[in-house]
Design goal:
Uridine Diphospho-n-acetylenolpyruvylglucosamine Reductase, domain 2; MurB_C; FAD binding; oxidoreductase; five-stranded antiparallel β-sheet; 7 helices; Uridine Diphospho-n-acetylenolpyruvylglucosamine Reductase, domain 1; four-stranded mixed β-sheet; EC 1.3.1.98; alpha+beta; binds flavin-adenine dinucleotide; 303 residues; UDP-N-acetylmuramate dehydrogenase activity; Uridine Diphospho-n-acetylenolpyruvylglucosamine Reductase, domain 3; 18 strands; single chain
């Protein structure tokens, strides 16, 4: 447990940037999640380094979030310190074919800069509501591409408070995974390599992707995108639908009638409701098809 002394120390180090008992539902796309003991939004990388070093010195657990669009936080909330990497760490710069973006920059913002500069590569990401940090850690992808094909190198901050770099080849990217999911480090910045492409073509491709999402995803309700990874050669949505679970509702959580790999929050769904649907989907799909579904979302928090 982080005690009130640690909270006071952090408030002195980062005035106006530290809150206690912040409801995590305000920071997740599912609009679900209990309080975080200490919640910090650093104003830049120096403040980020300060809070990380302080947590290390005082041995308080620290968890990093971006836009919370791939997260299920339980009602028990999060012990220790939650650091939100947001728009204050959101600088985007370009040089030739290179785009450098801080971890808190929205993927949509990076894609817009790329489009305006006639740099191709980020079209696939249209409609993914994450930050650069979350996208790199998750190796976010869609439409046959993923961010790993653009990443050149990443600037990280260790939980001891030291900056270091990693090249693409050392990040072990895979389908919705990277070594950064198990490495105790924070993504601070990423450098991407794009290619020249006609602006009109980029715009048209992004519009096409966005339109398809509007038609095939339940964007009118809070959700966290795909709950499960697609098993090799198949789609989790197809399997869940074929198992007869489309539309199934527990409390205010529902397996979407539009896309069965999405679980939507109809109003006051709890993490427990979502997790019950997750378990049901897993059991049914295993029973019907012998396929073990793997979670794509990250579940965090106390019971
Ligand atoms: C409507 C909708 C559509 C979606 N479509 C897609 C899609 O097509 N493809 C896809 O891949 N995903 C999709 N997602 C899921 C999600 O947007 C992506 O996984 C995104 O990359 C997560 O970014 P985030 O900033 O929200 O990360 P968060 O959800 O905040 O965090 C995700 C994980 O990354 C870690 N993390 C976040 N930032 C950092 C950092 N700076 N340093 C270290 N660790 C960090 C967190 O600890 C957590 O483990 C969708 C989600 C929604 C709601």
């Amino acid at each position: 447990m982080a005690d009130s002394a640690i909270c006071r120390e952090l408030q002195e180090l980062l005035p106006g940037r530290v809150r206690t008992g912040e409801p995590m539902k305000n920071h997740t796309s599912w609009r679900i999640g209990g309080p975080s003991e200490i919640f910090v939004e650093p104003a830049g990388r120096e403040e980020l380094q300060l809070v990380v070093s302080h947590a290390h010195r005082r041995q308080v657990p620290l968890m990093v979030i971006g836009n919370g669009s791939n997260l299920l936080v339980t009602e028990g909330g999060i012990r220790g310190i939650v650091v939100k990497i947001g728009s204050d760490l959101g600088r985007i710069t370009t040089r030739d074919l290179r785009i450098t973006a801080e971890a808190g920059a929205k993927l949509a913002g990076v894609a817009a800069v790329a489009r305006d500069k006639g740099l191709g590569g980020f079209e696939f990401s249209a409609g993914i509501p994450g930050t650069v940090g979350g996208a790199v850690v998750m190796n976010a992808g869609a439409n046959g591409s993923s961010i790993c094909s653009l990443v050149h190198k990443v600037l990280l901050l260790s939980l001891e408070g030291e900056f270091y770099q990693k090249a693409n080849k050392d990040i072990s990217f895979g389908y919705r995974t990277s070594i950064l999911q198990s490495e105790p480090a924070i993504v601070v910045e990423a450098e991407f390599f794009c290619h020249f492409k006609d602006k009109k073509e980029i715009t048209a491709e992004m519009e096409r992707h966005l339109n398809r999402r509007r038609q095939t995803q339940p964007l009118g309700y809070p959700n966290a995108g795909s709950v499960f990874k697609n098993p090799p050669g198949d789609s989790a949505g197809r399997l869940i639908e074929a198992a007869g679970l489309k539309g199934l509702r527990i409390g205010d959580a529902q397996i979407s009638t539009v896309h069965a790999n999405f679980i939507i929050n109809l109003g006051s769904a709890t993490a427990r409701d979502i997790l019950k649907l997750v378990e049901l989907a897993r059991e049914k799909v295993l029973g019907c098809f012998g396929v073990e579904l793997q979670l794509e979302i990250k579940v965090i928090g106390n019971d």
